[in-house]
């Protein structure tokens, strides 16, 4: 049986925390920042945890 390959798109987007949860960045922080409020940009700057529904699928993509 061949080894499972890590999904290269997923490994760039998700990080594993010390307790085994998955961390991700939020969308809408890349461009057109002039017309977005500072309040919105600050809120989008913080990392979020991946939802429980998606966690199993992403972990499988990462080979965890």
TrEMBL record:
- List the InterPro entries hit by this protein, alphabetically: Ribosomal_bL35, Ribosomal_bL35-like, Ribosomal_bL35_CS, Ribosomal_bL35_sf
Q: Which BP terms does GO give this entry?
A: translation
Coiled-coil region(s): none
**Top-rank taxon:** Bacteria
Question: GO cellular-component terms in the record?
Answer: cytosolic large ribosomal subunit
Q: Where is this region: Disordered?
A: 1-40
Keywords per UniProt: Ribonucleoprotein, Ribosomal protein
Gene Ontology molecular function, alphabetical: structural constituent of ribosome
**Hey, which family's this protein in?**
Belongs to the bacterial ribosomal protein bL35 family.
Question: Known PANTHER family for this protein?
Answer: 54S RIBOSOMAL PROTEIN BL35M, LARGE RIBOSOMAL SUBUNIT PROTEIN BL35M
Designated name of the protein: Large ribosomal subunit protein bL35
Q: Which organism is it from?
A: Nesterenkonia sandarakina
Mind giving the lineage of the organism this protein is from? Answer: Bacteria, Bacillati, Actinomycetota, Actinomycetes, Micrococcales
């Amino acid at each position: 049986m061949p080894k499972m390959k890590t999904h290269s798109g997923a490994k760039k987007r998700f990080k594993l925390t010390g307790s085994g949860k998955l961390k991700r960045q939020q969308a809408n922080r890349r461009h057109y920042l002039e017309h977005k409020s500072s309040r919105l940009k600050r809120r989008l700057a913080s990392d979020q945890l991946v939802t429980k529904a998606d966690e199993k699928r992403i972990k499988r993509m990462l080979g965890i």
